[in-house]
């Protein structure tokens, strides 16, 4: 017997069925779907297990599944002040459009990531691509329970599920070795929050290679890893380091975006010319870094991470080619004029 869309929708499990199987209230199911951080881990696990067992989909997703009308991908991207995200967003939207998908874009900073997850999931897209995942992010379990294809790029989860990244540890190690070979005596590291894989692994790679090259650990006062960079704090630190540390000096920034801002601030506020007074090195190899007026030496992949990620995500949506996407690009040095 052929079922109409309305009959199929009626036959699908509801949130009441999920609540009954998980032995929780319907309100708890709603909280797990919309505010998982407000529900205890044991309760979340019970609800996720019930969702997966019943193959439950919220109403909007069920309608789209039956009608076949949903060709939406949600992109959760970092701020477009960072040229890395500008480039990756452009490639993602362009490629997805060519494949017949609409992209809903959520531009966020790490502080608002939970709200962006809720907004992205509310429309129940065919897939989610995200650059802002935390190293121990609970969204992974929620996406698995809802059976929504996803991939992260630039960052990855500690469980190594569905990601496209640069070999961040090796990139930073290569950068430190490059500075050592160019005879820089003192290095000031500027990174970011260590609860994300990108900054975490780049800092680890830098520290390990620094110890190997300089036979001592990098000084803590010469490393800056904030949740968000405050240049009113950073520039005085750099000034003190520059005036007191001996020998030839370089700043190693964990991203090109940070490196480019540092080049601007040190020139305007400290009157330091790059590379004569100070060297600056970045990681990512964004297109802007090769601008003739900037000429930033950097380390990065030869492929765009966002473009690679969206290609693999759509292939997974349509053909289920890979159960788990694991792509790590080797880093390459792009020597320019900032060292």
Automatic annotation (TrEMBL):
<dbReference type="InterPro" id="IPR000843">
    <property type="entry name" value="HTH_LacI"/>
</dbReference>
<dbReference type="GO" id="GO:0003700">
    <property type="term" value="F:DNA-binding transcription factor activity"/>
</dbReference>
<dbReference type="GO" id="GO:0000976">
    <property type="term" value="F:transcription cis-regulatory region binding"/>
</dbReference>
<feature type="domain" description="HTH lacI-type">
    <location>
        <begin position="13"/>
        <end position="67"/>
    </location>
</feature>
<keyword id="KW-0238">DNA-binding</keyword>
<keyword id="KW-0805">Transcription regulation</keyword>
<dbReference type="InterPro" id="IPR028082">
    <property type="entry name" value="Peripla_BP_I"/>
</dbReference>
<dbReference type="InterPro" id="IPR010982">
    <property type="entry name" value="Lambda_DNA-bd_dom_sf"/>
</dbReference>
<keyword id="KW-0804">Transcription</keyword>
<dbReference type="Pfam" id="PF00532">
    <property type="entry name" value="Peripla_BP_1"/>
</dbReference>
<dbReference type="Pfam" id="PF00356">
    <property type="entry name" value="LacI"/>
</dbReference>
<protein>
    <submittedName>
        <fullName>LacI family transcriptional regulator</fullName>
    </submittedName>
</protein>
<dbReference type="InterPro" id="IPR001761">
    <property type="entry name" value="Peripla_BP/Lac1_sug-bd_dom"/>
</dbReference>
